[in-house]
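Q: I have 126 residues here and want to know how they pack in 3D. Can you give me a structure?
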Amino acid sequence: MSGRADSDLSPDTRADDADDADVGQGDDAEDAGHGEHDEHDDDTPHRARRARWAAVGAGAVLALAGAAAALLRLTGSVPALVPAAYACGAGACALAAVLGSRGRTRRALWLLIAGLMVMALGDQFD
């Protein structure tokens, strides 16, 4: 920009001027400018529902897998720490499923990760 007072305005500045001009034109101008936000707001409950179902599903599957692994390891000749680690990891994943069903999807994700890490640590002792 040259710094001259009579220089052209950038395109983004012109768009702001056009929005200011539409303010006095009534409800049609307001509805036309905010249509994109309404579509996004309608999708938010669906995203939250999908996140809850994903947390519940992943937590339940991993809890069942951890419980099955704990039972299988319990029947073998491994140290007691191994089935205990699988059982604790399965419990953490089950708790993550409960948290996910209540809408605490971020906490459920971190709890799923922690549960899987406990199971993997138990597998290292095998």
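Q: Anything worth noting?
A: The two ends are 68 Å apart (CA to CA). The chain is about 80% helix and 0% strand.
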